Amino acid sequence: MQIHNNTSLKPFNTFGIEAISKLFASFSSTDELGEILTSKQAKNNKLLPLGGGSNLLLTQNFDGLTLKNEIKGINLIKEDEHHYYIEVGAGENWHQFVLKSLSNNWFGAENLSLIPGSVGASPMQNIGAYGIELKEVFWFVEAMEIATQKIHRFEKSDCEFGYRTSIFKTKIKGETIIAKVGFKLNKKANLNTSYGAIQQELETLGIANPTPKDVSRAVINIRSSKLPNPAEIGNAGSFFKNPVVSKSVYEEILKAYPSAPSYPVSGTEVKVPAGWLIETAGWKGKTIDNCFGVHKKQALVLVNYKDATGQEIFDLSSQILEDIHSKFGIELEREVNII
Asked: What are the chain's domains?
């Protein structure tokens, strides 16, 4: 076990924000994690579990111990007539896991291609894209309780999945560190191509009878065309959640914007795309001091062009929140974790 002092977190967050962690350690097994958690440094300091750093905005140095999750492994545990049951280390890259699944003909996660981050973050956020959420392919989570170093298993019914949330972000936030995630993937393809521009992209590709790999390719193309590559421009993907509002609120928006998009949630509520709200309010492509701003192709994405501070990006997000509330009467929520 090695615990380092005064470590830069810039390589470990996709925004590329410079911040220093007073203490830093990585672990590649639950045994290593347990050893770290019983150390004096862990017991006497705040902890920051870190996966891919893709859903994180560092607004200051971290006066505690950062724990970098590097638990790896993608293993087929069992199968039945209709499904494969896969166990994956929380430190695995999410997109690489999706590609590995497709290469093995394990289907169901193809719409979630190219989402940045680690496998361990996926159940925390109940990640979703193009009509699919993680909970639809979820099997279990194994997580270590920080206080006792005991491993707990969470079944789907335990996780309280909601829109971009779970029990790991609410009731037991900060109490566990995810070690493994289990997935229940399909043996036969059950394609979902009706959401967003997937069908249009498949037609552009000349594909009339798509396979799951084709759907993944279409999603990758769409995301690549709209979202900046964190290796080139610092960002954390979608910065804001799509708000769910009452139909009466949406009807008020329609009076001023008759073509305002929405997606049904229930008989009384709809989801309004946050990107549309931000773009309509005039923020898309806005750049501050040639340093940071709102991405020119996707208004949901805040970007760090060069050496912005996390506080500057946070302040920009606050201005956007205030403006959307003023113009539309809607409270946007940040999707990223703020430190």
From this structure: 4-69 (3.30.43.10), 74-186 (3.30.465.10), 234-338 (3.90.78.10)
